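Hello,

I think I submitted the heme C job twice by accident. Can you confirm which output corresponds to this input? Input:
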Amino acid sequence: MALRRTLLVLLAGCLGCLASSAKEYSDAEKQQLRQLYKDKCSPCHGVDGKGQTPAGKLLKARNHTDAEWQKSVSDEQLVHSITHGKDKMPKWGDKLSEEQIRGLVEVVIRSLAASK
Ligand code: HEC
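Support: Only one job matched these inputs. Its output is below.
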């Protein structure tokens, strides 16, 4: 019985650690990330994320508001594409920090599908 209790305590502790691994963003951080998207990403993806700018249309930039696409890709995949680039999408790994890239995915890109 003592063993079962120990296991339960371990399990509960582990769930706690999983939940806390997702970063909480302050309003100021969210604001900064949205500004970063406007500065660096909107020339191709558009401020609204739809990719309907002249450069976006030319290069066929991904429409970030496409809910089906959003469901089909993991955060890790997106972080990877942004860091290393993908086809005509430039790589950002040498210009932005990993934290900024992760923030762009979690805060900006993921909120674009919901706003459609
Ligand atoms: C020069 C134009 C351009 C700029 C600037 C640009 N992108 Fe892209 N992006 C593209 C193109 C083109 C694609 C489509 C690549 C493909 O799917 O083959 C794309 C695709 C993506 C994808 C989808 C990748 C995938 O795995 O499906 C993400 C996420 C993305 N861009 C994020 C960003 C972010 C974040 C920024 C700003 C830091 C940014 N892009 C800036 C052109 C651009």
